[in-house]
Every structure is written in C-alpha cells, then in structure tokens.
C-alpha cells in the first residue's frame, strides 16, 4: 500500500519545479510562473524546463538526464502507472519541450544553461522574485560539448519513444532533432566543462536513436566505437554525470530481448555492475549503511540509490525476458527476484522503513524532512506574501529553524549519512536538498512496485 500511495505523489515535484506551471491543474498551488524572459536578452526563447534542485538555475546536463530517466521509466514501466501515466508523460514533455527549444533556437548551437550559479547562490529568493543575471550559456562547433549534447540527444530520442503512439508528429520532431543533436555531439567532440565526462558515457543516445528510428546505422556505430569509447571499462555508479552503468544495462537489452549476439558483451558488463551491488557476491564492492541503504557519497547520496534501484529493476525485467536469464557473479548466479528484492529494500528505506523511521520523500508518511534546502519551499509563497522578498532579505528564511511554509510534496532529498543519520537542517544541503535527478529514476521504481 505504501508504494501505491507514493506513486500517486511522485510527479508533483517534477511539475512543481518547472519554471512555468504546466497546466491549470498544477498541484503545487503555492508556485507561480517564473523565468518568463529567459533567453530574451540573447534573442532566443528559453522559457520552460526545470530548475534541477533548490536553486534557480537551469542546468542542461542534469535536466537532460532527468528527462531521459523519466522517459525510460515510462518506456519500461508505463503500463504499471495506470492513472498516473499521463502525469508522467506531461513531466517528460515539459523537459523535451524545453530541450527542443535549446537545440533548435540557433543553428549549430545548443543552449545548455540559464542563470549564473555564482550570482544565484549569493541570493536566497523565490524564483518568482528572481533579479539575478539570467546569463545564457551554449556549446557550438567552436566550443563543443559532446557530453551535454549527447545526453540531450538521448532525452529527445527517449521522449520520441514515449510519444510515438499518442502524438506521432511530436514524436517525429523529437527524433529528428535527437539525430541532429547526436550528430553534432559526435562531429564536434569535447567536454563542455572540466569534468571527467567523455562521449563514451553517452551510448544511450545512439541506442535510443536505434530503438526510436529503427536505423541500424546506430547499431553499427556502437559496435565500431565500443572499445574506443571505453565500453570495455566497468564503473560502479550511475548518475547525471556518469552514464556508463546505465548505458550498458540498456545495451544488454539488445542481447537479452532481441538476441543480438554482438551485445552479449554488454550483458557481461551489466552483470559486473549488478554483482558489485549484491552482498555476498564474489565481486561485491558496494557500501551499505547499518540500516541497509546503499551508500556512495556524502552529497546527495539518494541520487545513487534511486538510479541503482531503477537499473536493478530494468535489468531484472530484461533478464526475465531471456530464457534462463540470470546475472553471473563469478562462479555463482543471481536471479531477477534477488535484484527486485534488493531494489525493494532501497525503495522501502527511502519511504520510511529505516532506523530513523523517516520518509525521505517530502509530504509522504508521518515523518518527513521539514526544512529542505529549497528556495521556493522555504520562503513564504507569492500567494501568502505577494510583496517581493529581495535577494538578501531571503536569508532570514534560510537560517530560520522553522519548518518550510510550503510542502514540496513528492520531493526526495539527498538523504542520510553512512550511519543512517539525518540532519533536518536547511543549511545541510548535502542531506536536505531535493533534486529532479533523484526523483526521475524513482518514478520508474515506484511504478514497478505499484504492480507487485
């Protein structure tokens, strides 16, 4: 029952962090329009999209990842979403609408960010009151960004699959743009930042382009570039800035469901990733808290929990489609049921089955975080306090010990530390800040369990 109820509450976060209300039935009534002139100073329309966390900046890479994972959730588990399917598709469309603008506003250019994070982080103000610089950042052939461009292509391609039957013309537009953006990413190679992300982590784009278009040239691309781009390297996390594990699980589907023998390699790599998470496996190397939570890092750890849970469930589904499908862990094997059980333990922990009896989804359960690191939630809403609250005046709310006046229903926060400890403290952003890229994979996991 917990999971079924939760599935009904998950999407308001994603809709509520949008920079404009998606529809008149917006469920977070304390939010209002914001960012309505984004891009205007650069003569482009960049209105829309998501603020990815508790600030007021639109970052293209995590936004594209969020959209990809939302779409992947619908593709894999949409049949389990029942009356929430349209809400999930609305959330995907809100992301793809913005990414279409970012990719097509200026030929040969992809807009990848709106807002200056340094200026933004010197303010604590509602998005409706923003007066910080809405600087626009872009990549081009002269200043390439293969990482963000390829993830954008993946999001658009995944979205095209979501809308293939319900809105064919929109689906085709998404696919056409995805192909163009991937070609841009591949032709002009280079990372857009000083991060370690490289093009090799974005096989998601050609894989999804293949699925969406049926064009086998992308399969050939994967086969010919796999080793060169690091496909033979194993990594043991999956996040918005490192896609390798997720990409290999997705590629393994080609072998498990479609018997593409060339992709059996990716099944082996996926097994390595999965086995690293399984306690007792010969290749086990994950860390868990005393209460049983997967623990990867001190900052926003639940992003790794929700992504790994989603991959466990997606891989379990793929294994079940293959006769005798199991994950090989050295001399032992792991069944799909064991993957599902591990994912369920993580999902239940997030929803309150943990030593603190704390639900880390805001608004769900009897006990949940009250002081989340989120500007709009922590400040009086424009409906309760119509007068503007300036950049500096908002800090009194950041430092207040009072609970947030606006409940960001559905938001999953960064989560507890490696000893299951959680500081319900607005200033502890590592634990108390929600993010769309934490929530997006959780949508698919909750949909899966709502049918169990």
Automatic annotation (TrEMBL):
If you read the UniProt record, what top EC class would you report for this enzyme, in one word?
hydrolase
Family listed: Belongs to the glycosyl hydrolase 9 (cellulase E) family.
> What GO MF terms are annotated?
cellulase activity
Q: Which UniProt keywords apply?
A: Carbohydrate metabolism, Cellulose degradation, Glycosidase, Hydrolase, Polysaccharide degradation
Keyword Hydrolase in annotation? yes
UniProt xrefs under InterPro entries: 6-hairpin_glycosidase_sf, 6hp_glycosidase-like_sf, Glyco_hydro_9, Glyco_hydro_9_Asp/Glu_AS, Glyco_hydro_9_His_AS
Question: What are its GO biological-process terms?
Answer: cellulose catabolic process
- List the catalytic residues: 373, 424, 433
Q: Which reaction does it catalyse?
A: Endohydrolysis of (1->4)-beta-D-glucosidic linkages in cellulose, lichenin and cereal beta-D-glucans
Return the protein name: Endoglucanase
């Amino acid at each position: 029952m917990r999971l079924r109820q939760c599935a009904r509450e998950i999407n308001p976060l994603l809709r509520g962090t949008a920079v404009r209300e998606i529809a008149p039935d917006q469920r977070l009534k304390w939010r209002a329009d914001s960012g309505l002139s984004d891009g205007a100073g650069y003569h482009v329309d960049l209105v829309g999209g998501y603020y990815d966390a508790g600030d007021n900046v639109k970052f293209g890479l995590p936004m594209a990842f969020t959209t990809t994972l939302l779409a992947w959730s619908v593709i894999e588990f949409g049949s389990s979403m029942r009356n929430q399917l349209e809400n999930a598709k609305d959330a995907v469309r809100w992301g793809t609408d913005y990414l279409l603008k970012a990719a097509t506003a200026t030929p040969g250019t992809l807009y990848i960010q709106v807002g200056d994070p340094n200026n933004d982080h010197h303010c604590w103000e509602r998005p409706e009151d923003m007066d910080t610089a809405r600087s626009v950042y872009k990549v081009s052939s002269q200043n390439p960004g293969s990482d963000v461009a390829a993830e954008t292509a993946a999001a658009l391609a995944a979205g095209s699959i979501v809308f293939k039957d319900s809105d064919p013309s929109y689906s085709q537009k998404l696919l056409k743009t995805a192909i163009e953006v991937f070609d841009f990413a591949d032709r002009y190679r280079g990372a857009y930042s000083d991060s370690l992300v490289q093009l090799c982590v974005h096989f998601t784009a050609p894989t999804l382009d293949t699925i969406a278009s049926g064009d086998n040239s992308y399969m050939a691309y994967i086969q010919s570039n796999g080793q060169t781009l690091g496909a033979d390297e194993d990594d043991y996390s999956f996040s918005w800035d490192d896609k390798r594990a997720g990409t290999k699980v997705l590629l393994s589907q080609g072998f498990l469901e479609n018997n593409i023998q060339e992709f059996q390699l990716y099944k082996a790599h996926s097994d390595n990733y999965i086995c690293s998470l399984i306690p007792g496996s010969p290749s086990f190397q994950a860390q868990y808290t005393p209460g049983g939570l997967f623990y990867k890092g001190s900052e926003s750890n639940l992003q790794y929990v929700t992504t790994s849970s989603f991959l466990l469930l997606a891989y379990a589904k793929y294994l079940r489609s293959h006769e005798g499908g199991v994950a090989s862990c050295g001399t032992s094997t792991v069944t799909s049921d064991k993957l599902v059980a591990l994912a369920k333990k993580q999902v239940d922990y997030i929803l309150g089955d943990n030593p603190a009896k704390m639900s880390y989804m805001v608004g769900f359960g009897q006990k949940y975080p009250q002081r989340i690191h989120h500007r709009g939630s922590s400040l009086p809403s424009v409906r309760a306090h119509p007068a503007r609250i300036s950049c500096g005046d908002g800090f009194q709310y950041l430092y207040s010990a009072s609970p947030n006046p606006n409940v960001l229903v559905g938001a999953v926060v960064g989560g507890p530390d490696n000893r299951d400890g959680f500081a319900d403290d607005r200033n502890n952003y590592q634990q108390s800040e929600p993010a769309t890229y934490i929530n997006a994979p959780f949508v698919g996991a909750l949909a899966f369990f709502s049918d169990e």
